[in-house]
């Protein structure tokens, strides 16, 4: 896996938000969709919304620290990043789980061209690079 900082960011505005009030996933999807609908094709936007929701929900479930989320249109795709104050290691489960939860990173891995976890000051950043539609 590569670092998210490897990908050059274009000057195309994306979306960034400190999730202080922990909006519901549906509210988050509406806000991001409104901000990016004119810049991304619908299939791209749907993938961005799914990945963002999975990463944010993961942070909601595993930390009570502040959470920041960002979507950036880059030179090679759409970069989705979620940062929180949880320093615990994050791993993709290799075996199917009978639980209702625990499959989010498998979805992210299936949709993204690349994804990873970076240590940051006081926490971690989980990122996923999604391909741009042709």
From TrEMBL:
Keywords noted in UniProt: Kinase, Serine/threonine-protein kinase, Transferase
Signal sequence extent: none
PANTHER family associated with the record: ANTI-SIGMA-F FACTOR RSBW (PTHR35526:SF3), ANTI-SIGMA-F FACTOR RSBW-RELATED (PTHR35526)
Coiled-coil regions listed in the entry: none
Histidine kinase/HSP90-like ATPase domain segment(s): 27-127
Membrane-crossing residue ranges in chain numbering: none
Pfam family, one: HATPase_c_2
InterPro entries per UniProt: Anti-sigma-factor_SerPK (IPR050267), HATPase_C_sf (IPR036890), HATPase_dom (IPR003594)
Superkingdom classification of source: Bacteria
Name of the molecule in the record: Anti-sigma regulatory factor (Ser/Thr protein kinase)
């Amino acid at each position: 896996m590569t670092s998210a900082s490897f990908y050059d960011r274009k000057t195309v505005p994306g979306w960034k938000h400190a999730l202080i009030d922990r909006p519901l996933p549906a509210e988050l999807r509406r806000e991001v969709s409104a901000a990016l609908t004119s810049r991304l094709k619908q299939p791209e936007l749907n993938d961005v919304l799914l990945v963002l929701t999975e990463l944010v929900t993961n942070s909601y479930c595993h930390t009570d620290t502040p959470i920041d989320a960002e979507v950036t249109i880059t030179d090679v795709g759409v970069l989705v990043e979620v940062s929180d104050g949880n320093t615990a290691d994050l791993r993709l489960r290799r075996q199917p789980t009978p639980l209702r939860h625990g499959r989010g990173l498998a979805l992210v891995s299936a949709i993204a061209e690349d994804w990873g976890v970076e240590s940051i000051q006081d926490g971690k950043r989980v990122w996923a690079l999604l391909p741009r539609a042709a």
